[in-house]
Design brief:
Largest sheet: 6 strands, parallel
Number of helices: 8
Order of helices and strands: EEEHHEHEHEHEHEEHEHE
Helix content: 25-40%
Structural class: alpha/beta
Strand order of the largest sheet: 6-5-4-7-8-9
Shape: globular
Length: about 240
């Protein structure tokens, strides 16, 4: 979420009413005109960042940063990202590229040109996916981040040779395959500190797929369920 502070707790001294901030909701969702946040889970919004862009960043940035760290990807390796055109996938792809990692990204063909623009090699979903990845990465795959939950775990294990090298944030059957499921968020501060400078420098970009007014939140959810997004959907409060 992103917005201006309306009020602060009696023991909060680092924030003032009216400050522009962004961060994660304490209530688990921010589809509202007002929301609550812990004082250590919000951050001053830079002037160069719009409210819509700021709202799209905290969850995706924290998740991408955390999962890449959990996978231990490093310079010179090759990473496969499933759903590379989604919010987490886009940040993970660009962050890995900034770290000197080769990225293969699965996505619908409509998003292939954009993935090439951000330095990834796109591969189409569907039957024959594993073979297409092998063709795109003859050097092999060192790690896999699954943000799709589309039954890609067996093929991902085959590509890496070990389930420990595969991590999913979207497939609840992970344990059946011996794959890690990462769903518990950590502190957003370290991730934002690492990624915000790269965003300001233009090395990482989070596209906004669409912006809906709050009263059309149901339409936003339907659009999300249709898939094939490029970036994040944002709900905007009309003032």
């Amino acid at each position: 979420m992103a917005g201006a502070i309306d009020s602060v707790g009696h023991d909060v001294s680092q924030w003032q009413v009216g400050q522009a901030v962004f961060g994660r909701s304490a209530t688990g969702g921010a589809a509202a005109t007002h929301d609550l946040a812990g004082a250590d889970e919000i951050f001053a919004k830079p002037e160069w960042l719009s409210f819509e862009q700021a709202a799209a960043l905290p969850v995706a940035v924290e998740t991408a940063y955390r999962t890449l760290r959990e996978l231990g990807v490093r310079e010179g390796q090759t990473l496969l990202v499933h759903a590379a055109a989604g919010g987490v996938g886009l940040i993970a792809t660009q962050l890995a590229r900034a770290w000197g990692v080769t990225v293969i990204g699965t996505a619908s063909e409509t998003n292939h040109a954009f993935l090439r623009e951000i330095g990834a090699t796109p591969v189409t979903y569907g039957e024959g996916l594993t073979d297409r990845v092998r063709t795109a990465a003859p050097q092999g795959i060192d790690a896999v981040l699954d943000g799709s939950g589309r039954g890609v775990l067996p093929g991902s294990i085959a590509l890496t040779g070990e389930p420990e090298k595969v991590l999913t944030i979207a497939d609840p059957t992970a344990a059946e395959h011996g794959v890690r499921f990462s769903g518990r968020p950590g502190p957003a501060g370290p991730a934002l500190e690492a990624v915000l400078p790269l965003i300001e420098q233009g090395k990482i970009h989070m596209p906004i797929d669409s912006v809906y007014p709050l009263h059309k939140a149901a339409d936003a959810h339907r659009h999300s369920e249709n898939g094939h997004l490029q970036g994040k959907i944002v709900l905007s409060i009309e003032t």
